[in-house]
């Protein structure tokens, strides 16, 4: 892409919690013609999210919290979401372990990366590292709830995996990262069952 893009200028529009800039650039289309385009890009840093799963009880851990942008666009209730946070100066794995302890109140063991998508690449630069992990009730170290000093007021919610999956269809879960992680876990579990040797197989 380097030979198809020429940066012209950038303009700072806002620099508060995140940075909003307007970028003007020349772009060469596939037919070879050049055109000038502009995009507003919001940079709030990258993040990480996690969906812990208890295989013995087939449950997942989520959080419920108020989201002002969702409220102002018509969603009256707090959102059910996967635990998540911004990386700040941490790597994704360190970040999500901290977030799990802070928001969920659980100290997790092995953590597996599921995927790391750009969440809204048309206007937001954030990339989100999404993880899964197994947990049990013995892993709980606190009540969780988030960082009060950062304005967090988080409820820890435990659902069966089946109920969490159903909540996507009935509208109780409308957060994108959470939908992707639940669907990933359901597909992963289904694939594991298919690959498991049948207990009824006859010896040769």
TrEMBL record:
It catalyses: GDP-alpha-D-mannose + H2O = alpha-D-mannose 1-phosphate + GMP + 2 H(+). Keywords: Hydrolase, Magnesium, Metal-binding. Its cofactor is Mg(2+). Pfam families: NUDIX (PF00293). It comes from the Bacteria. NCBIfam families: nudix-type nucleoside diphosphatase, YffH/AdpP family (TIGR00052). GO terms for biological process: nucleoside phosphate metabolic process; ribose phosphate metabolic process. Belongs to the Nudix hydrolase family. NudK subfamily. Residues 43-181 form the Nudix hydrolase domain. It comes from Aquibium carbonis. Homodimer. GO terms for cellular component: cytosol. One of its GO terms (molecular function) is metal ion binding. Mg(2+) binds at residues 84, 99, 103, 152. This is GDP-mannose pyrophosphatase. A motif (Nudix box) lies at residues 85-106.
